[in-house]
Amino acid sequence: MYAAKNRFHNALNSLIALNSTSINEEDNNCKTILLHVLEAEPFDRKLANRLIHDYGADVNHIDQDGTPLIIKLVMQKKKTLVDFLLSSKQLLIHVPDSGGRDACDYAKENGLALHMREFLSCSKRMKLNDMQELSLKQTNPDATGNNASNRRASLLFQPRPPIMVKIGSSDAPPTNK
User: Fold this and answer.
1) From CA 78, how far away is CA 138, in angstroms rounded?
2) Which of 11, 29, 95, 155 is 20 to 30 A from 73 (CA-CA)?
């Protein structure tokens, strides 16, 4: 998390490559690596895209308190970051938090909806549809296309074949005569 928060790209790349299954784990502040990268100044769109598309960072992550990532950014009125997440085809903006409110509800409350039309047309049906889709993604990640971290982890941690060494009658190196 420290590497993500402080934009240490090489360290972050190494950490993710070593253990790509931890990409969506939270720190003590309920923040994932993706959220740290999103909140880092200046915002690194390229790195955030790599985390999502190459390593499987979940744009629909719901923290241990029941708050989806999009709601956190809407509550902070981070328009640029919300726009970035809205550009992701995987994002479900109507997933409610533990209180039953979705990103639209918060955007209307804090005025962000006036600048972003995506938050103007919301309904209970949309919340139900997104919750059903989210539960499908959680039970069957292969159907979502967002299993890059699983694919990468399986590639990284495949056992390698043993090195075969031919043992001759002599251990001495060949000599030129």
Assistant:
1) 27
2) 11
